[in-house]
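dumping these here so i dont lose them again. two proteins, back to back, each one seq then structure tokens. dont judge the mess
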Amino acid sequence: MTAPFRPGPPSGDRPVPPPGPRPGPPLGARPGAPPGARPVPPPSAEDVDDARHPAVDAAVQAMINAAALSPADQIAQYEAAYETLRETLASIDQA
């Protein structure tokens, strides 16, 4: 070899995919539940209210409010919300 070695396919013509339909799902298809799966009803209002935690609700609201802030301020809000969520989950795990 007289020139530096360069890995990869040889230069020249590139292979062309064969004509015809491409493998994979049809265009516009969206993933969904498998055929025959039964939909799960959403949780009732009583179940959701019992599972709520004020610190988590406050952190989520802070992230929603951060959308109106400048990017630098958004980062500070997201970091504060992350810290709140981390501490809340740690306290739940210790309970």
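---- next one ----
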Amino acid sequence: MKINLVLKALNHPIRRDIIARLREGPLSAGDLAAFYDVSKPTMSTHYATLKDADLIRGEKDGVTIFYHLNATVAEDALSSLMALLGTGETGQAVAPSLNKETSS
């Protein structure tokens, strides 16, 4: 796993929010884009960054792309981060949550 790519992907609040939305199930690129006030090229960049980190995968259905969460990679990244911080075995709290934030 490429932890640096995962951390980079989770560095932006829109990408963290995409991950949170995909936890509920697959969504089309258009449905996801409707939640954010950004251009289509910007959304494409967000999707590409998440795909590069293997956090999401796209599945084409005709002309529509549906994105799915790759939860295994997200769990592995969290596990690696906890091990890095030395908190995985002791059960202590980890650094701040990876949930969406209001600023980047």
